[in-house]
From TrEMBL:
GO terms for biological process: carbohydrate catabolic process. One of its GO terms (cellular component) is cytosol. It comes from Celerinatantimonas diazotrophica. It comes from the Bacteria. This is 6-phospho-beta-glucosidase.
Length: 462
């Protein structure tokens, strides 16, 4: 690549507490919503019994092995690691009066380890989990009380880590509640649209309150939102398809509109009327929403198409998303359509819409990596995928888009959120563990490890 990224551009990877840490009840941690989904975020909810197996209970044991893993990230040249705090490590039940000191101390050690290598932490407050007690006893984010619990949690970690962490995100893929209400908001999966959107409203208010708290408690910090970047193309140039695609894009852009502009977009009035949704929005809520994010972050894995033709049913599947297959694109082993140019299109679209800095905080290829006869993993398919997407980020920057950084998902093999598999691997670093929990947990560098290391090095000033 002849284009050189800005010197301030942040390079790294992204992980989530519930997919890497393990030690799910260690040192005072409470059960999270992730802990009761042993087969993945989009599968059945199981009340935990003693002796139940959940691969996430150990995951890749980042809880104990973080010094080794962070050293490997530093070896690759990371200037940024996106990670999340497990809310239930800090407030085990969510409604506790006082935080769990052992949980707070754990993340102090993580941030100190990152500082040793000059790796900037980008910290997500809630990444596909919340204390299970809140879901079970308060109906999750359907309860207005949870806003206060989240605000207390946010203020606690801002006060504790304000000198160590200057980049924050509120909710991971906040629009996921549209597709998976339990994972996104701790709601019953058969909840009504009224309940779903009221919970989303409470989350948006809580996010804005966290943004305000961050601005007050850490004035030199930046805090952003995070969306699942689900870009939809019209299947044809038929105006009906164009309008259908616009409506489906509005479904997720609405979250960015509220968090970046500070109020509900006008198009949602019609949406709510058609769904029969009548939100309880107080004057205090409207005032709270005016506190807007400093930057926009998002995940990007695939695009899809929309059609007004009811007979157009061929579906592409990616996580919880169901979109019409784009005949011009190839797909991964898990049916995710691969569209590097879509990333450039999305970056331009979001920049035009918000005029706020953008951050690509998830992008990666899940694949069944198989060691060769020498025990090495030659994942050229991953190198090709990431290289193509990074190239398109460079194109977007040359288009005039302000992009802060890129953190690939996930830089080390971890437990898949959607399926709770280890065999769906994303990392530059191989972890010896299979879907049944067998393995040594030994770490091994893949071919892509050295590719990413050399690429990051090539972007540094001579």
């Amino acid at each position: 690549m002849s284009f050189r990224f800005p010197e301030s551009f942040l390079w790294g990877g992204a992980i989530a507490a519930n997919q890497v840490e393990g030690s799910h009840l260690s040192d005072g941690k409470g059960l999270s919503t992730s802990d009761v989904c042993p087969n993945g975020a989009f599968n059945e909810i199981v009340e935990r019994q003693d002796g139940d197996f959940n691969i996430k209970d150990i995951a890749i044991d980042f809880y104990h092995r973080y010094p080794q893993d962070i050293a490997l990230f530093a070896e690759m040249g990371f200037s940024c690691l996106r990670l999340s705090i497990a809310w239930s490590r800090i407030f085990p039940n969510g409604d506790d009066e006082q935080p769990n000191q052992a949980g707070l101390a754990y993340y102090d050690k993580i941030f100190d380890e990152l500082a040793k290598y000059n790796i900037t932490p980008l910290v997500t407050l809630s990444h596909y989990e919340m204390p299970y007690h809140l879901a079970k006893n308060y109906q999750g984010w359907a309860s207005r009380e949870v806003i206060g619990f989240f605000e207390r949690y946010a203020k606690t970690v801002f006060s504790r880590y304000g000198k160590k962490v200057k980049h924050w995100l509120t909710f991971n893929e906040i629009n996921v509640t549209l597709h998976e209400p339990f994972t996104g908001s701790g709601l019953p999966r058969d909840c009504s649209e009224q309940t779903r959107y009221q919970a989303i409203h409470h989350q948006l208010v809580a996010s804005a309150k966290a943004v305000k708290a961050c601005h007050e408690l850490i004035p030199d910090a930046q805090i952003g939102n995070m969306m699942l970047g689900a870009l939809i193309y019209p299947f044809t140039c038929n105006p009906d398809d164009v309008q259908k695609a616009q409506a489906q894009n509005h479904d997720w852009l609405f979250f960015g509109d509220v968090q970046a502009r500070g109020y509900y977009p006008s198009y949602m009035r019609r949406k709510f009327a058609e769904l029969g949704v009548n939100l309880d929005i107080s004057a205090d809520d409207r005032e709270a929403l005016k506190e807007t994010v400093d930057f926009i972050s998002f995940s990007y894995y695939m695009t899809g198409c929309a059609s007004a033709d009811p007979n157009q049913q061929q579906q592409a599947q990616g996580n919880m998303l169901r979109m019409i297959v784009n005949p011009y694109l190839e797909s991964s082993e898990w049916g995710w359509q691969i569209d590097p140019k879509g990333l450039r299109i999305l970056l331009n679209m979001l920049w035009d819409r918000y005029q706020k800095p953008l951050f690509v905080v998830e992008n990666g290829l899940g694949a069944k990596d198989v060691p060769n006869e020498k025990g090495e993993i030659e994942d050229d398919y991953r190198i090709d995928y990431l290289s193509a997407h990074i190239h398109q980020i460079g194109e977007a920057i040359q288009d005039g888009v302000d992009v802060m950084g890129y953190t690939s998902w996930g830089p080390i093999d971890l437990v898949s959120a959607s399926t709770a598999q280890m065999s769906k691997r994303y990392g530059f670093i191989y972890v010896d563990r299979d879907d049944d929990g067998n393995g040594t947990l030994e770490r091994k560098r893949k071919k892509s490890f050295y590719w990413y290391q050399n690429f990051i090095k090539s972007q540094k000033k001579d």
